[in-house]
Amino acid sequence: MLRQYELVERVKEYDPDADEALINRAYVFSVQKHGSQKRASGDPYFSHPIEVAGLMTDLKMDVETIITALLHDTVEDTLTTIEEIERMFGPKVAEMVDGVTKLSKIEAQTENERAAENLRKFLLAMSNDLRVLLVKLADRLHNMRTLHFISSVDKRKRIARETMDIFAPLAERVGMYEYMREMQMLAFRELEPEAYDTIVGRLDQIKANAENQVESIAESLKTELGAHGLTADVSGREKHPYSIWRKMAERHVSFEQMTDIIAFRVLVDSIDDCYAALGHIHRKWKMIPGRFKDYISTPKRNGYRSLHTAIIHGRSMRVEIQIRTHEMHRQSEYGLAAHWAYKQGGTRPDGQAGWIRDLIEILDTAQDADELLEHTRMAMYQDRIFAFTPKGALHQLPKGATAVDFAYAVHTNLGNQAVGVLINGRNVPLRTALSNGDIVEILKSEGQEPQTSWLGFVTTGKARAAIRRYVRDKEREETAAMGRVIFDEIAGRLPVKIGKKALKQALERLEMEDETDLLVAIGTNQITDQDLMDALVPGSSNEMTALREFPRQDRAISIRGLTPGVAFQLAECCHPVPGDRIVGLRRQGEHIEVHTIDCLNLVSGVDADWIDLSWESDSEGATARIRAILYNRPGTLADMAGIFSHHKANIVNLKLTNRDQPFHTYESDLEVHDVAHLMQIIMALRASESVARADRI
Predict the structure, then answer these.
(1) Tally of CB atoms within 10 A around 634
(2) DSSP assignment string, 104-146
(3) TGS domain: from which residue to which, for each copy (predicted)?
(4) Which residues are catalytically annotated?
């Protein structure tokens, strides 16, 4: 554990003007507040914040950050208050300490709403000052280094999984690869001990057997570059165990089949030297196609810059090489922390980095803790691809991202209005996955809305959150519209006219905040007709029941203008279309399920509230299902498709359900205008020489 004077000396080494008295006061304050508390290792608890402060000195952080590290556990684990810290160390330190403590109780799989609120507060604090995140990452790294002292296996695994899912991706996103690698390795050792021991053992063997070979390759690289006037530091190292294990899993290969265990790093003085070194290496040794990446011209979103390549060295040995400047190397190890060093003369990086802005937008759209944690983890995934707008703006997305993800990355409104996409000039489906270097032009329409089906293929948290928010808002709006027509019908049964005063009193009696809440409750059958009548006119339902005159629905309720699948569901069993006589089944907490009046499955709705519905004359079309038995001869399927086309019916789904020698049976889902349109198609099928039988199902 660092002594008080040692911590001060470390800070003074890189910042001679540091406030020594303030650091001493924070050190003593932390020791006094934690008092006799012990860690699982048996060490005094105050040793932990002091070690975290020591990690901050390794990053050459400013005095405010050092003090925050010393105090980061005092509010949570002692009787200290934020107000006390603000009084003694200033408002900025108090704000940072408050931000650091917010994620302490987060568990990756929790369903606790308080956990989501803690994560919200932490991310908001982080967006204002990234030093909050740096201290938290150092806090977690030190806790991982001492994880083995915890006796509970379940607790160790929970902490390790949390580190792998949340903290290691956060470290990667701010470019702190040293922290990320060590946290992944320590978590991997706890979560997969057998795999960890096996890989470490094999790496030790390779290191022992190939030590001279690694030195030889490094020397050959250095000599080749020196021959062309380039001064370079060259070093070789084996990849860390978790990286190897993940690649083995992704590629489905054994350790023996891994050919890129050893990687080399070449450090030069300038960007020009980086490209010159790359050219000399490629001229000397054969490069492996598909393995070159230029993160200097297109840096990663966390600021990482480097050239990556792979070559065949010597006797068919595959070698990975990273080429960067010394400054890039410091940035690659410590990321945004490198920008926060005291020597930057007061300049600070943009606390609202692009990916953090995405997270903040997700905070505004997540409905519950599970959704928030899901979206934030998605937003922090590591593997990225680069795609461009037609004007050349660069956007980074996770591997597997689609055109819809790209649209939302550019702007939420563009995502909401996307109707098509041109990728490299070709018109392709919106679900198309993007590749590195794609030029993506999103086609939009003001009349377009996000589709629920998009949730099946989008990969980014921002896109998923925006779509879910829009769907929820649309659902509430249309459910309220459905509730409005039901409300008007129920209110019409009462003996008196219902005005604004009666409605306001009804809301108070039902303990609802506003009219929209009431309409949504009606639309989802959260309130019965009798309860609504009594709320509007107290005692009315009892009086009517006593007189045996309780009024029932006397007119059909129109569903015109509402979207199937939002305020109501069209039943899959009977596929109602405009023109059918329809009824709705209302079950508590669910949307209305619409059936044709002769649907055989209505018997299962005896426990539901039935309401009479109507389409109205100008209702939009729906999907109908037809079963057609075709003669088994060439061209009959084409004839059926031709009939559909002639009657302008779009095929949504086509399935072969039965095949025997003389006949094939198909079920077709068609978009039709109404019953008359559907019957025209069926009659045309029955008249065809290719069709033995056609029926609606």
Answers:
(1) 6
(2) TT--TT---HHHHHHHHHHHHHHHH-THHHHHHHHHHHHHHHT
(3) 383-444
(4) 76-77
